């Protein structure tokens, strides 16, 4: 008999979706109207042994409590800050994620965003489309990356991959995190010091309570009117109100963001900032990476129900 699982989220690549259907009895929350979800969980909750979820959706304690047979939560993503480990750990519920397979594509997008901001690519695109080039409207020059400093907030897998890419542009690399990394880059004594010494501040740290709003008004002030913030981590790491105010007032030169505090709702004031480049949380959104993520999340479920070691387990402490 196939184990029953609950899917939170949608948009899985076809081959992974088909494999899930072959291996499990799949209950899909995304196909249920909001008003009917409580009754849906009441109906199927007793039988659900696994949850397949996204890094953004995670699973909270209230939902987990309604799944008494739950054994494993497989996260399709690397971030697990939306998983309530305090609720799951006492019940011995395993948690897995999909590290490594998305590192390169997320790092690529971080660099693409940084380049788009520094070379003003969205503005230049609009300039050409609006006929302003032909009309000889004066154009503001962009900035070179060579000789500039990139400050990496969080030198984990993705932070290191970003640092490697940016160093090839002739940028100097510095980083900050609470622990000292085994890396060839100097560590700043504080986040504030990193921001003050950087031209570009690239946020690669994990989400969660410990990092919430760590990029606050003081950090943005330190980065300054010639500085640019790049965030491909979690929107929760940035004080969004302070960011908008700094962009509007010119106290921050620019921002390039793939993540936001309340996705998919992006504040109108931020959308109206001419000095911001915005993308809809697509760091891992390539065919290749989403396929690899889906397969790895699936492999964790298959391993669990076959009694094999989990390929990529996550502990509460690691989260």
UniProtKB/TrEMBL annotation:
It comes from the Bacteria. Keywords: NAD, NADP, Oxidoreductase. GO terms for cellular component: cytosol. The keyword Magnesium does not apply. It holds the Pfam family 2-Hacid_dh. GO terms for molecular function: glyoxylate reductase (NADPH) activity; hydroxypyruvate reductase [NAD(P)H] activity; NAD binding. Residues 39-314 form the D-isomer specific 2-hydroxyacid dehydrogenase catalytic domain. Residues 111-283 form the D-isomer specific 2-hydroxyacid dehydrogenase NAD-binding domain. SUPFAM superfamilies: Formate/glycerate dehydrogenase catalytic domain-like, NAD(P)-binding Rossmann-fold domains. Belongs to the D-isomer specific 2-hydroxyacid dehydrogenase family. This is 2-hydroxyacid dehydrogenase.
């Amino acid at each position: 008999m196939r184990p029953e699982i609950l899917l939170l989220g949608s948009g899985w690549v076809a081959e992974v979706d088909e494999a899930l259907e072959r291996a499990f009895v799949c209950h899909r929350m995304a196909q249920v109207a909001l008003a009917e979800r409580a009754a849906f969980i009441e109906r199927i909750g007793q039988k659900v042994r696994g949850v397949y979820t996204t890094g953004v959706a995670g699973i909270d304690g209230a939902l987990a409590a309604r799944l008494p047979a739950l054994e494993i939560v497989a996260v399709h993503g690397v971030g697990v800050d939306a998983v309530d480990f305090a609720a799951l750990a006492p019940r011995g519920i395993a948690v897995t994620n999909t590290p490594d397979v998305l590192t390169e594509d997320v790092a690529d997008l971080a660099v693409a965003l940084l380049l788009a901001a520094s070379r003003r690519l969205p503005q230049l695109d609009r300039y050409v489309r609006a006929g302003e080039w032909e009309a000889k409207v004066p154009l503001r020059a962009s900035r070179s990356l060579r000789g500039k400093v990139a400050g990496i907030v969080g030198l984990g897998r993705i932070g290191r991959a970003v640092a490697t890419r940016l160093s090839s542009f002739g940028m100097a690399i510095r980083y900050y995190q609470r622990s000292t990394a085994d890396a060839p880059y100097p560590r700043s004594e504080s986040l504030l010091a990193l921001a003050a010494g950087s031209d570009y501040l690239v946020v690669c740290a994990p989400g969660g309570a410990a990092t919430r709003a760590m990029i606050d008004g003081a950090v943005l002030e330190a980065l300054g009117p010639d500085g640019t913030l790049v965030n491909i981590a979690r929107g929760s790491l940035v004080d969004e109100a302070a960011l908008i105010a700094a962009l509007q007032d010119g106290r921050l030169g620019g921002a390039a963001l793939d993540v936001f505090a309340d996705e998919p709702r992006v504040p109108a004031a931020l959308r109206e900032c001419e000095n911001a480049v915005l993308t809809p949380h697509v760091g891992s959104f390539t065919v290749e990476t989403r396929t690899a993520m889906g397969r790895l999340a699936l492999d964790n479920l298959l391993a669990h129900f076959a009694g094999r070691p989990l390929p990529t387990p996550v502990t509460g402490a690691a989260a």
